[in-house]
C-alpha cells in the first residue's frame, strides 16, 4: 500500500518540547513522537503492547535521570528505545523473575535538521536506515518562517499527482492576483532525474505568474522525490524563497499536507505574513477541494488515463514507486527510471 525503507516527514522541531510527546498517524500506524528531558527526539509505536491503549494518552516521566513514557491505563513505562522499564502491578519478586526489557514497542530512527524531524519507516522493525535523510538546499542555519497544515481526504497517490499536475492550474487556481483565464499559452519545461525523483530544471518563471514578477528576475526549480517530497526553489539576486511540501500518507484514505516556507528575500521581509499565508492557504484549499470532489467519481471505480505531456510527471511518479519497490524486494541497485526530457503543455 505504501513505500517502505524511506524517510518520511514526521513533525516540526518546534512541535516537540522537552519532556513532551504527540500522536501522529503515519502509513496507517499510530506513532508517538517525543523529545526526552535532555532534548533528544525519538519516535515509537503509539500502542501499549499490554492492552493496546495509545501511549500518547499518558505522560512523559523522568526516573533516575531517564525519560520514560507512562501508559495511561496501567502505568507501564517505556524507555525511548522502546524497552519496558517498569510494570507497577508486579510485586518485587515478580519483577525480579521477569526480564522487562524483552517487552518492547517498536521504535523508529529519526533525523532532525532545518527545523524538520524525519522518520525512517522500514520494512522490518527497528531497521538501520539504508539511505541518507533528505536535506533541503538552503543557506546554513535557515529555519522555517511559516508552516501550513492541511488534510486531503484521498489516497496519497491522488494527492501527489494532483499537486504536481500542471494542467489544472488555469481551472483550479484562477484568480486575479495569480493568473487570469485569458493567460493560457503553450509552455515547454526541461526535466531531468535527481536522486529518487526528478527536477523541473532551473528556469525563468512564466510571465503570466504575476507574483513571481514581483521578486525581480527570479529563477525557479521544482524538485520531487519519493515518497512525496516536493520543493520549489525560487532564487533572485542571491536571495531565495523556498517552499517545501511534504505529502504524507496518514492512512489509505487520508493524506497530510505540510508546507514549510523559508526565505531571505527582502521583499518578503516587508510583506505582511498574513498575506503570504493567506495566498498559500487559498492554493492548498483549492487543491484539497478538487481531490476531495474527485473521490465521488472514484467511488464508481472508473478506468483512468494519463496523457502526454501534461501527465508525464504522474507517470514518472508511478515508475519511481515501482523501481523503488523492485529495489527493496530484489536487492538490486535502484535505477531512476526518469530520463531527461522537455515536456510541453498549455497552461
From TrEMBL:
Q: Which InterPro entries match?
A: Cholesterol_7-desaturase (IPR050584), Rieske_2Fe-2S (IPR017941), Rieske_2Fe-2S_sf (IPR036922), VanA_C_cat (IPR044043)
Record domain Rieske: where = 8-119
Protein's organism: Maricaulis salignorans
GO function terms (MF aspect): 2 iron, 2 sulfur cluster binding; dioxygenase activity; metal ion binding
Record's protein name: Phenylpropionate dioxygenase, large terminal subunit
**Keywords on record:** 2Fe-2S, Dioxygenase, Iron, Iron-sulfur, Metal-binding, Oxidoreductase
Amino acid at each position: 500500500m505504501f513505500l517502505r525503507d524511506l524517510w518520511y516527514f514526521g513533525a516540526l522541531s518546534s512541535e516537540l518540547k522537552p519532556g513532551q510527546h504527540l500522536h501522529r498517524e503515519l502509513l496507517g500506524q499510530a506513532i508517538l513522537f517525543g523529545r526526552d528531558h535532555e532534548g533528544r527526539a525519538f519516535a515509537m509505536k503509539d500502542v501499549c503492547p499490554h492492552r493496546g491503549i495509545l501511549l500518547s494518552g499518558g505522560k512523559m516521566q523522568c526516573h533516575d535521570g531517564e525519560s520514560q513514557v507512562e501508559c495511561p491505563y496501567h502505568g507501564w513505562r517505556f524507555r525511548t528505545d522502546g524497552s519496558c522499564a517498569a510494570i507497577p502491578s508486579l510485586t518485587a519478586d515478580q519483577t525480579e523473575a521477569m526480564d522487562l526489557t524483552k517487552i518492547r514497542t517498536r521504535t523508529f530512527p529519526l533525523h532532525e535538521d532545518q527545523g524538520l524531524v524525519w522518520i525512517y519507516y522500514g520494512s522490518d522493525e527497528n531497521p538501520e536506515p539504508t539511505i541518507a535523510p533528505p536535506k533541503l538546499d538552503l543557506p546554513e542555519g535557515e529555519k522555517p518562517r511559516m508552516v501550513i497544515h492541511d488534510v486531503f481526504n484521498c489516497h496519497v497517490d491522488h494527492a501527489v499527482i494532483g499537486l504536481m499536475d500542471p494542467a489544472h492550474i488555469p481551472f483550479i487556481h484562477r484568480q486575479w492576483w495569480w493568473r487570469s483565464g485569458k493567460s493560457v499559452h503553450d509552455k515547454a519545461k526541461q526535466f531531468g532525474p535527481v536522486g529518487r525523483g526528478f527536477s523541473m530544471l532551473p528556469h525563468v518563471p512564466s510571465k503570466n505568474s504575476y507574483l513571481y514578477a514581483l521578486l525581480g528576475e527570479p529563477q525557479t526549480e521544482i524538485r520531487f522525490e519519493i515518497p512525496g517530497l516536493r520543493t520549489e526553489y525560487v532564487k533572485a539576486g542571491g536571495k531565495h524563497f523556498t517552499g517545501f511540501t511534504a505529502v504524507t500518507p496518514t492512512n489509505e484514505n487520508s493524506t497530510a499536507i505540510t508546507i514549510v516556507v523559508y526565505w531571505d528575500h527582502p521583499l518578503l521581509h516587508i510583506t505582511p505574513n498574513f498575506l503570504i499565508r493567506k495566498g498559500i492557504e487559498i492554493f492548498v484549499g483549492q487543491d484539497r477541494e478538487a481531490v476531495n470532489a474527485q473521490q465521488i467519481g472514484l467511488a464508481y471505480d472508473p478506468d483512468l488515463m494519463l496523457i502526454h505531456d501534461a501527465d508525464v510527471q504522474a507517470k514518472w511518479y508511478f515508475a519511481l514507486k515501482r523501481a523503488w519497490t523492485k529495489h527493496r524486494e530484489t536487492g538490486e541497485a535502484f535505477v531512476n527510471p526518469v530520463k531527461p526530457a522537455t515536456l510541453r503543455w498549455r497552461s
